[in-house]
Amino acid sequence: MHAATVGGDIDGPCLVLLHQTPRSWDEFRAVAGLIEGYRIVMPDLPGYGASQALPDNTIESSAAAVLTLLDELRVPCAHLVGHHFGGLVAYQLAVSAPQRVLSLVLSSTPFIDEGERRRRRTAQPFNDIAVQTDGGHLARLWQRRAEYLAHPDPEVQGRYVRDVLAHPDPDRGHAAVAAYRSEDGVGGYSGPVLCIASARDPRAYPRHSRIMAAFPQAREYVLGDGDIASPETCPAEFARAILDFHADVVLR
Question: Which domains are assigned to the chain?
Answer without folding.
Answer: 3-125+171-250 (3.40.50.1820)
